[in-house]
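Worked example 3 (structure in, sequence out).
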């Protein structure tokens, strides 16, 4: 992802002083999930361009940073390394924080003056909202132009790309341009990499203080910046209404971004599964399709669970699980408490019996539809644990993933994904056939219209 800022006029090399970045010296900055580079593709008296390029490490994003255990921020393949997203905003505040604050020491007069500036934001996610680019940026004094392209020449039915290259041209102070971009990129990009909490209200008010209260699209900007979280949006509106309430201390503070980590969907999901198990009196648990053992690791931390097992069809996954759980060098006591074994959920298997609860977390969608009936009987009829927890993606939520086109599924190995109704219909049918009562819940950030990304059904055997 790339942002360029071009200053035209006279002595434009002074852009380097305003940004606190020397045009003669390219620089690199470490970000939480990659690196930011600052360099100047052109420098002259009449025209100087500074570029901020961000190189996100896609492996870090998917798996979490080396040595960290919490898992990644985004599931599976995604567009994050390639598009202008909340990562760009975080980098702007980290790399150009002083310029954003308006401090320019010997060049204060220049910093306080409107300059002829042009910003180009490449690959801004902007799904079906291109007309909003004008209504959001024009009132701030910019000429707006953007170019779009077709998504893929080989798949014309995918239509026009959801990403635009946006050019903003105006006579504005540099600090205002940076603040506008900082706030407005995450307005158009829906998938923020940080948790949207009350801190974000403060940031919005701090960076929007001079322009947001009067902006004709303030409701749209506030709603989208805060991910439409009602309580936060209301809080921001109250503060905007009493506009001079933005406190002086906050304004004086240098704009340094605190790294905030949003719990990944995977972390939230596993947390909810453990919480559901803890809420009932189960002592022994089997994790079916345990993968690399992330749930098993959490279960091991809870003394309530005295007997734990993990089963998976994949040898490789089981070896990774064994490594993660350090079973090679575990003592007898641990080895008595947990075991891993290979098996398939679509075959009747005596080793699956005898547990108080079974978890099937993000597994059913990996089964071929014609094999589902065999899975249902193997688990609900033969193993028949008193409690069964099943989670699976909610397909409706996929509209929120900009990188998924048409009917695409979240993972290459998924054989299907269900809407909320499809999952409920299936679960209710299974429950009544095999004698289980049901409770449903949603996991992850809830979209008012499309629900949450993950759905969970807790089956409890009727006695
Ligand atoms: N439950 C884990 C892994 C989910 S990925 C988690 O939430 O992190 C799906 C897992 O299901 C993979 O590890 C895959 O090997 C396993 N799997 C797929 N088909 C299976 C089958 N028929 N029997 C058992 N495991 C299966």
């Amino acid at each position: 992802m790339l942002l360029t800022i071009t200053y035209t006029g006279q002595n434009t090399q002074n852009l380097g002083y305003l940004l606190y970045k020397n045009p003669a010296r390219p620089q690199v900055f470490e970000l939480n999930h990659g690196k930011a580079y600052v360099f100047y593709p052109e420098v002259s008296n009449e025209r100087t361009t500074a570029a901020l390029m961000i190189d996100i490490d896609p492996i870090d994003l998917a798996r979490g940073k080396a040595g960290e255990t919490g898992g990644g921020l985004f599931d599976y393949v995604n567009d994050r390394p390639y598009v202008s997203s909340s990562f760009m905003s975080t980098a702007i505040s980290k790399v150009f924080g002083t310029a954003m604050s308006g401090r320019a020491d010997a060049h204060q007069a220049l910093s306080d003056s409107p300059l002829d500036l042009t910003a180009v934001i490449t690959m801004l996610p902007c799904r079906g909202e291109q007309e909003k680019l004008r209504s959001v940026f024009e009132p701030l004094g910019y000429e707006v132009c953007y170019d779009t392209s077709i998504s893929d020449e080989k798949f014309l039915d995918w239509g026009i790309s959801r990403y635009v290259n946006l050019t903003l041209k105006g006579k504005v102070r540099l600090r205002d341009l940076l603040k506008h971009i900082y706030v407005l990129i995450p307005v158009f990009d829906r998938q923020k990499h940080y948790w949207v909490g009350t801190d974000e209200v403060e940031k919005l008010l701090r960076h929007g203080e001079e322009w947001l209260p009067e902006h004709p699209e303030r409701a749209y900007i506030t709603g989208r910046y805060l991910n439409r979280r009602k309580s936060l949006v209301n809080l921001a509106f109250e503060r905007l209404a009493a506009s001079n309430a933005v406190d002086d201390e906050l304004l004086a503070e240098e704009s340094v971004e605190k790294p905030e980590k949003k719990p990944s969907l995977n972390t939230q999901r596993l947390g909810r599964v453990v919480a559901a198990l803890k809420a009932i009196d189960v002592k022994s648990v089997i994790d079916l399709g345990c993968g690399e053992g992330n749930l098993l690791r959490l279960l091991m931390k809870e003394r309530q669970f005295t007997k734990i097992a993990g089963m998976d069809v994949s040898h490789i996954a089981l070896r990774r699980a064994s490594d993660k759980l350090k079973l090679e060098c575990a003592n007898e006591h641990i080895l008595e408490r947990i075991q891993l074994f290979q098996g398939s959920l679509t075959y009747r298997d005596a080793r699956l019996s005898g547990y108080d609860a079974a978890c099937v977390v993000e597994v059913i969608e990996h089964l071929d539809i014609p094999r589902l009936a065999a899975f249902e009987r193997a688990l609900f009829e033969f193993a028949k644990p008193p409690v069964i927890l099943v989670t699976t993606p909610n397909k409706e939520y996929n509209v929120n993933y900009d990188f998924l086109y048409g009917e695409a599924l979240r993972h290459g190995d998924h054989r299907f994904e269900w809407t909320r109704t499809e999952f409920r219909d299936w679960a209710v049918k299974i429950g009544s056939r095999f004698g289980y009562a049901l409770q449903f819940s949603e996991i992850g950030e809830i979209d008012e219209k499309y629900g949450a990304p993950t759905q969970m059904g807790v089956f409890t055997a009727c006695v």
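Notes: The two ends are 58 Å apart (CA to CA). Residues 289-291, 294, 312-314, 317, 344-346, 361-363, 366-367 surround S-adenosyl-L-homocysteine (CB under 6 Å).
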